[in-house]
TrEMBL record:
Name used for this protein in its record: Acetylserotonin O-methyltransferase like
PROSITE patterns named in the record: SAM_OMT_II
Naturally occurring in which organism (per UniProt): Zonotrichia albicollis (White-throated sparrow)
Claim: Ion transport is one of the keywords in the record: no
Co-factor requirement: a divalent metal cation
GO biological process: methylation
Residues covered by the O-methyltransferase C-terminal domain: 399-606
Top-level division of the source organism's lineage: Eukaryota
PANTHER family: BIFUNCTIONAL DTTP/UTP PYROPHOSPHATASE/METHYLTRANSFERASE PROTEIN-RELATED, BIFUNCTIONAL DTTP_UTP PYROPHOSPHATASE_METHYLTRANSFERASE PROTEIN-RELATED
Subunit field text: Homodimer.
Length: 630
């Protein structure tokens, strides 16, 4: 969703971010901008002494990064982009420019310089509007910078080295990442926080407002690389105010050769025009079309969604993210050799992953983004690998038959797998590899949601809990960490319990969690003050739920409670879409809204039903067994 019309102006354009920085990608993605990522090959080697102020260096580098990408895309006969955005972040302290450290010693040198002092972070940004005329590339460059002042606390040598050994400083300007561990080093920030992280979003939006909305060139007071934009806000702009930004351009002396033309640059206005190899005035140039129909970006995204999902699935199956973990940039050919696949096919897949923000691509090769390291490698604490493989092997074939599922109103296991639902369910528990895949998938989601479920309510009053269908024990282990006095029994089928040791967390005291095998529909339930049903109710038809809730209600003593973890739908039952779409797989069960859970639980003698929407994949519902003495 685009919150304001300024970013909406870019919806119908092919926008390219000329940056490999995952932070920049995230900042722009978070505000709904759709763009491709084409990292720049421009080497950050401009002669610093030729710039009179540090921000000039950042602006020029940003510009050269963006120009390199615009030219490359044009030359390679790819479709010329409409807009290329480049950025460069530097730290300036004692008149010195600090970029990314080259090694740990360099990081130490930088951090020692910043220790106990205030410094400036400058991000230079270049927005290049491209236009192909007679196969000639014409470009209009707009650039600006933003300054933020940051002060470090007095830090001990030990702390600095501990921070350096965390590995975080290496790809960050000045050797720290304010958004993560580096935030602990910082005493104050004056100015735009996102500017420090790598992209001054607010200034960028104001700059777009200037470009697309200011009524006439006479109103524009161009500033000499002033970091203060000519508009105060980008709110409340309507298309009626829109104007053709090219009318307001002025020619400049910008040299596009890739070199900073000392003396000439930075005396110009901050919008300039470039034809490949030449500088040309902008008068009479065609405007970037304002009348083109707005692209239905949401629909286009949905149309393409399957390609993106499948690219993620295949890269995960081939264990590309595992291979790249803790590795420097790796060439496509080496990755292809490792996974035993064709070089051309692998390269396409790697590029697709880079365009989706899963990998970073530089001239040196491909490497994992931070989120790939966290979520896509198979052994990470919060790995989603198991669920991704389940999605590929199990859900994908089911969804391929969605049309039949809708027409016939039933699950399509027979078409997708040549088996009936019951036989397939047996497979989950009897065929080792299917069982493990299923358990890994459940474990992925449980790990990701466990903390939010465990802390949705204060459960410290309970001494014992029983997680019915608790599978690998992921939620149980989280609960005993949050509530050290709690003991949790995980109750699940014998075939599941036999395989749980693989998922046991390392380095945690596991004694408060015990595993008991049994069938919660048939066998006696272990005694507990708190029963838990996480991702169970949505899977079963009403008759089975009746059996289960009747049993729990019967064993619950007055004052004991039941905690249900499910995605709770809104009352219209259209959100969150992740749960609504899950229903399309047509299990025999269903997703429920708050009022439906309340009604259901009250029917089985539970009162005081409280619902917490966690903002995570699972919400939490807590209810208490009626106290008979009341
Ligand atoms: O607090 C933080 N400060 C800086 C960063 C990140 O640092 C880098 C700055 O490097 P640069 O501007 O040269 O950008 P690159 O990452 O090399 O990508 P390009 O392809 O655009 O050259 C930048 O990634 C900031 O995000 C940070 O994360 N936190």
């Amino acid at each position: 969703m685009v919150l304001n019309p300024v970013l909406g102006k870019l919806v119908s354009k092919r926008v390219v971010l000329a940056s490999a920085s995952p932070r920049r990608q995230e900042i722009l993605t978070n505000v709904g901008l759709r763009f491709e990522v084409v990292p720049s090959w421009f080497k950050e080697t401009l002669e610093k002494s030729s710039f009179t102020a540090p921000y000039e260096y950042a602006v020029e580098t940003a510009k050269q990064k963006a120009l390199e990408v615009a030219n490359r895309m044009h030359i390679k006969h790819m479709r010329t982009p409409d807009i290329v955005i480049g950025a460069d972040t530097i730290v300036s302290v004692d008149k010195q420019i600090l970029e990314k450290p080259v090694d740990k010693q360099d990081a130490y040198r930088m951090l020692s310089r910043l220790n106990g002092k205030e410094h400036s972070v400058f991000t230079g940004v270049a927005i290049i509007h491209c236009h192909s005329k007679d196969n000639q590339l014409e470009m209009e460059v707009t650039d600006f910078y933003e300054e933020t002042k940051v002060k470090f606390s007095e830090l001990s040598e030990e702390l600095l080295w501990e921070y350096i050994h965390s590995g975080e400083p290496m790809d960050k300007a000045g050797g720290y990442g304010i958004q993560a561990l580096g935030g602990m080093l910082v005493e104050y920030v004056h100015g735009d926080f996102l500017n420090v992280v790598g992209f001054p979003l607010n200034h960028f939006c104001k700059k777009l407002a200037e470009l697309y909305y200011l009524p006439s060139k006479h109103n524009i007071q161009h500033k000499k690389y002033d970091s203060i934009p000519s508009v105060d806000t980008f709110e409340n702009l309507s298309d009626g105010e829109s104007s053709n930004f090219t009318e307001r351009k002025v020619a400049s002396k910008l040299d596009h050769s890739g070199m900073h033309s000392s003396g000439a640059a930075y005396t110009s206005e901050n919008t300039s025009a470039v034809r490949t190899g030449f500088t040309v005035p902008l008068e009479n140039q065609n405007a970037v079309s304002q009348s083109a129909p707005k692209l239905p970006s949401k629909i286009l995204e949905l149309m393409d969604g399957f390609r993106a999902s499948k690219a993620l699935f295949v890269a995960s199956k081939l264990k590309i993210f595992d291979h790249l973990k803790d590795k420097g940039p790796t060439k496509a050919v080496d990755i292809a050799n490792y996974v035993g696949a064709s070089v051309c096919g692998t390269e396409r897949l790697l590029d697709a992953c880079a365009s989706l923000g899963l990998l970073e691509k530089t001239p040196q090769g491909y490497s994992n983004t931070d989120s790939a390291n966290t979520y896509l490698t198979s052994d990470g604490k919060y790995s989603l690998h198991g669920y991704i493989i389940h999605s590929n092997d199990h859900l994908w074939p089911l969804f391929t038959n969605l049309e039949f599922a809708v027409k016939e109103g039933s699950r399509q296991n027979h078409r997708a797998f040549g088996k009936k639902a019951d036989d397939l369910f047996k497979d989950y528990y009897h065929r080792q590899e299917v069982k493990q895949r299923f358990m890994a998938a459940m474990h992925s989601i449980a790990r990701l949601t466990a903390r939010d479920v465990a802390t949705a309510f204060d459960l410290s009053q309970f001494k014992s809990a029983c997680d019915l269908g608790g599978c690998t024990g992921a939620l149980a282990y989280e609960l005993v960490q949050v509530y050290p006095n709690l003991k949790v029994t995980v109750f699940d089928l014998p075939e599941v319990i036999a395989n749980t040791s693989y998922f046991q967390p390392s380095g945690q005291h596991t004694a408060p969690v015990t595993f008991v095998s049994g069938d919660f529909f048939k066998d006696n339930l272990p005694e507990a003050d708190l029963y838990i049903l996480s991702r169970v109710l949505h899977d079963w038809p009403d008759e089975k739920i009746h059996v289960l809730l009747s049993k729990i209600s019967a064993v619950c003593k007055p004052g004991s409670a039941l905690l249900v973890a499910e995605t709770v739908l809104d009352e219209q039952k259209t959100h969150p879409s992740v749960a609504v779409l899950q229903s399309l797989s047509m299990t025999e069960g269903k997703q429920r809204s708050s009022s439906e859970y309340k009604q259901l639980l009250e029917k089985y003698g539970f009162t005081d039903v409280q619902i917490k929407i966690t903002g995570n994949l699972l919400d939490a519902v807590l209810c208490f067994k009626k106290n008979l003495s009341l």
